[in-house]
From TrEMBL:
Biological process according to GO: DNA recombination; DNA repair
One Pfam family cited in the UniProt record for this chain: RecR_ZnF
Keyword Isomerase attributed: no
GO molecular function, one term: zinc ion binding
Organism: Arcticibacter svalbardensis MN12-7
Protein name: Recombination protein RecR
CDD domains: TOPRIM_recR
Family: Belongs to the RecR family.
The gene coding this protein: recR
Toprim domain sequence ranges: 81-176
UniProt keyword DNA damage, yes or no: yes
Known function: May play a role in DNA repair. It seems to be involved in an RecBC-independent recombinational process of DNA repair. It may act with RecF and RecO.
């Protein structure tokens, strides 16, 4: 692409680094921004800068949060003895949308993937073990996608937690939700949590 302006080129290059955005789409977005009032573009860029600068991760569950401890972990209505283990914040949002789950979460921040160089120490797993050791956890539900990485992660966590007195279960894997729990429809997802099965090897 030949650009008439270096500023335009820089902006298009930055946008095209986003997932699913090619150069043509990036150019369309940049030209759209250029046509908007300055205040709108200012708000847009400020929201991104503040997002990166101010966002925090809940020190209990690892979910994205505005405060040191997230709203789910601080809520007196949530059952702190039931922990649902998920890959990332999108899964928390998907499960919250079902309005059927009243436990708390533990967000791993990814899945074990030796091919991508992601080992257990890169993930929020040790704090989970610590949590199981120090708080009265009765059950952990492994709600991870039915992929090789999901299975590897489930097995690793199972080995870490199997000597604790808590139950370990997985969401029903036979249900077709395309592998990624964030894409599951709410009824299917709620049902797969309700019909979770004990995990064992
Ligand atoms: Zn939390």
């Amino acid at each position: 692409m030949n650009f008439s302006s270096r500023l335009l080129e820089n902006a298009v290059n930055e946008f095209s680094k986003l997932p699913g955005i090619g150069q043509k789409t990036a150019l369309r977005l940049v030209l759209h921004l250029l046509s908007q009032p300055s205040e709108d573009v200012g708000r847009f860029s400020e929201s991104i800068v503040r997002l990166k600068k101010e966002i925090r991760f809940c020190k209990i569950c690892g979910n994205i949060s505005d405060a040191e401890v997230c709203e789910i972990c601080t809520s007196p209505k949530r059952d702190k003895t039931l922990i649902c283990i998920v890959e990332d914040t999108r899964d928390v949002m998907a499960i919250e949308n079902t309005n059927q789950y009243f436990g708390v979460y533990h967000v791993l921040g990814g899945l074990i993937s030796p091919m991508d160089g992601v080992g257990p120490s890169e993930l929020n797993i040790e704090p989970l073990v610590e949590r199981a050791r120090t708080s009265p956890v009765q059950e952990v539900i492994l709600a991870l996608s039915a992929t090789m990485e999901g299975d590897t992660t489930i097995f690793y966590i199972y080995k870490k937690l199997k000597d604790f007195p808590c139950k370990i279960s997985t969401i029903a894997r036979g249900i077709a939700f395309g592998g990624e729990i964030e894409y599951a429809d709410e009824i299917t997802l709620a049902r797969s949590i309700a019909t979770r099965v004990p995990y064992g090897v």
